[in-house]
Specification:
By secondary structure, the protein is of the alpha/beta class. Helix content is 36%, strand content 18%. The chain starts with a strand and ends with a helix. Bound molecules: uridine-diphosphate-N-acetylglucosamine.
């Protein structure tokens, strides 16, 4: 397929690009090589790949990049939790204005297939299970409770600490920070576009993606990169809260395979797909696995917390397996070893 990949020079984008090429697709990359991600370093596409160095918010660059394309994989975005509320305009502009400009361009070019990089953060605090009230949406955690070391979100009805459930795609959306809000808005813009143009959208709700090429030493780095950076310097990983936060760490090659599978196979309307390994781990477990693989110091539990963080968020990715015939290939232990070896 002749496809446009936005954000193809980024962490996940480069793996998606590799997968697209391995599967024989004809690819054009649109990437602005943002300073806060690429640090001014140049980037050259692999042979045979067209490259438009431009911003997805620039209609002229978008029109150029869309010429002759049949589908779009939209990964260009400002990622991470951000530093503070001052980041809000940049999330709204980079992610939401960018998506709106791209969708308008796709309508002009009559391109009707879109794969959108979304995120598990759209679910907010995820799904909790109360012994008395069953499946409930945990309330946001208040600063007072966090400061007192009460990290588990309580049942919104009776206050009992909740067990964690696996979130399915039909769970309510509940974005808790600017990045999450921008991802929800992207999904809705894409759905609006699909309704008026008859296009198809696969919204890939990525879980915590890790693997070779992870951004590091930036305020937007994920926890696995932060821990490997610390260990490389002989320092213990600083584990926030009590280390019991659960995530689903999914390898970037598996994420790339899921994304390309959606581009090839998703053919009807608007569909969200959770993208997770299916095996939740705690942040403490991950820190211990990396410390052991890198023969570094024991991780430190700091009790520190970030207000925008959710406590647990774990995906039910069975829709992706069933509908797109995707199966993760990289086991957690092997993935951590690989990360350690490349640190
Ligand atoms: C991550 C992604 C986000 C994605 C989401 C999907 C990053 C930066 N964020 O968010 O883009 O949409 O997954 O689920 O990749 N922590 C520590 N020590 C540290 C840093 C973090 O213990 O030094 C803890 C945090 O408190 C949190 C967990 O690690 O509980 C994960 O943090 P982070 O890697 O920032 O990812 P998410 O917030 O889950």
């Amino acid at each position: 397929m002749r496809t446009l990949l936005t954000g193809g020079a980024g962490f996940i984008g480069q793996h998606v690009l590799r997968e697209l090429l391995a599967r024989g697709h004809d690819v054009c990359v649109l990437d602005s090589l943002r300073e806060d991600v690429h640090g001014g370093r140049p980037w050259a596409p692999p042979p045979g790949v067209a490259f438009v160095h431009g911003d997805v918010r620039d209609p002229a660059a978008v029109d150029r990049a869309l010429q002759g394309r049949e589908s779009v994989l939209h990964l260009a975005a400002k990622v991470g939790l951000g530093v503070d509320v001052g980041d809000m305009p940049d999330y709204a502009s980079s992610n939401d204005v960018g998506t709106a400009v791209l969708l308008a361009g796709m309508a002009r070019a009559r391109i009707d297939r879109l794969v959108l990089a979304s995120s598990m953060v759209v679910y907010g605090e995820g799904l909790g299970v109360c012994p008395a009230h069953g499946s409930v949406a945990p309330a946001p955690r208040c600063e007072k409770a966090l400061a007192a070391g009460q990290f588990e979100p309580p049942c919104p009805v009776c206050g009992t600490p909740l067990a964690t459930g696996l979130v399915s795609e039909s769970a309510a959306l509940d974005p808790r920070n600017a990045y999450a809000t921008s991802k929800v808005a992207q999904e809705f813009y894409a759905a609006n576009w699909a309704r008026t143009t008859g296009g198809t959208v696969a919204a890939m709700r990525y879980h915590n993606v890790y693997g070779p090429g992870m951004p590091r030493n930036t305020p937007y780095a994920g926890v696995a990169a932060i821990f490997t950076s610390a260990l490389r310097q002989g320092k213990p990983p600083q584990v926030f809260e009590d280390g019991g936060q659960r995530r689903d760490f999914v390898h970037v090659r598996d994420v790339a395979a899921a994304t390309v599978a959606a581009c090839e196979k998703h053919e009807t309307a608007v569909r969200a797909f959770n993208v997770g390994s299916g095996t939740p781990r705690t942040v403490g477990e991950m820190a211990a696995a990396l410390a052991s693989a890198m023969k570094g110091p024991t991780p430190q539990l700091t009790g520190h917390y970030r207000l925008g963080d959710v406590r647990h968020i774990t995906a039910d990715s069975s829709r992706l397996r069933a509908e797109l015939d995707w199966h993760p290939q990289v086991e957690f232990a092997a993935g951590m070893q690989e990360l350690a070896a490349n640190a």
